[in-house]
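Researcher: Predict the fold of Signal transduction histidine-protein kinase/phosphatase MprB.
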Amino acid sequence: MTHRPLSSRLRDALGSLSARLLVAFLLPTLLFLALAGASVYALARASLEDELGSSLSALAAATASQVSGERMLTIEPGDDVSGTRTWRNLVRLLDGVRTASGVRRVYAVDAQGRVRTDVGGNLPVGTEVPELARDRLELTRVLAGKRAASQVLFTGSDGLLYKTGYAPVVQDGQVVGAIGVEGSAAFFGPLRRLWRTFAMASVVALVALAFIALLTARGLARPLRRLMDSALRIGRGDLTTPVPPEPTREIGVLARELEVMRGALESRDRQLKLMLAGVAHEVRNPLGGIALFSGLLQEDLRAGAHADAGSHVDRIQREVTYLQRIVEDFLAFAREQPLARAPMEAPDLVSSACELLSMEASGKGVTLDVDAAPAHLEADGSLLTAALVNLVKNAVQAAPGGSRVKIRGQRRDGGYAIDVQDSGPGVPEAERERIFEPFFTTREQGTGLGLPLARKIVRAHGGELALRSTPGNTVFTLTLPCTPDSQEARALP
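Model: Structure tokens for Signal transduction histidine-protein kinase/phosphatase MprB follow.
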């Protein structure tokens, strides 16, 4: 199976993002416009149809009120040919209504649906009106004495849409016929034009939205592509090129976080290279000593000079012990150890560290002067003890014989500060900035990892390790956060 490069997959993802944004912009808008347009068109058409039907049935009712049912029923087939007076009077009435209202057709029928007079349709008297078969339900309502309008529009011979309104012709309380008025649904022309205008406006809006979507997609894709390029550079091992900032808030947060990650990786890479160089340098010297004294030991054993063999073995063992200490310090500094926090008292931390160095201090004639105020800490006791032991050990080694190393613990600035003070020669100003760098040491047998490891442990606890030094007065200050109980205790009298 062939795996595509990561850069190709990321570019495809950005292309897919643009497509999804385009769809996300256009699809909801298209659905909304279609549904809204269709709904508005249907509502407008239904409303206009109802209004037209109501107007036509009202006109039919007004006309029916002027028609005498008795005289209308006297019109017989052939009267339209001979032109009887009753037929002419009814034609004159219906034609006046037709002319005044502008409708297409006005006709009068009896209860059986046969034409008595048809103005505009020109059906002969006695002929059944075909449209009444379509409007059978409406005609039933009319014969029951109610007005009605056809439920459907129909197309006339001129290709236009029409609707019919009906009203009963009443004689002596009985429905004897009906008046039908056909009117043109001319409003559908403007309505259709309005619909076409709406459709064109929708198309224009969709094109504008598509343009905006493309601009938005490009506006998102460009900074994302820059972030992608930065991520790929970091993945290829380029940790020196900074990640450019981005103006967009969300993508800007990603860029800043990626820059923080790059800086951390660069720092870790630089530290790792420094550590490897330091290990190589530190290991080379004892290895050279081991090779030298093992060669001398071999020569002495061949020559039978066993008296010097013991001293050579002692030197080899010392070099091996030093190598072992280098490896242990390196591993302690390099690995990330999870903190096993537990409640502990600050005086116990200080006293346990000083007890471990009491023999070494006595051997050099140095007195450990300890004074630690009570405070509650939440810390990894073994790791903090190792860090404090390193500080006290350095102070003992730097202090002149017969002097004092003062270890003071006190609450300070919301935390707990432990000062380790000696009266040695101090740290030269040129070395103060480098004293916490891994493998930097001024001692012949020093690994240069003690102080960096101590600072690493303290910072893992949320504290800090700092140095103040002048000739005759060097102070390392280890500051740790206090637990809430400690803060409350400090506020008590």
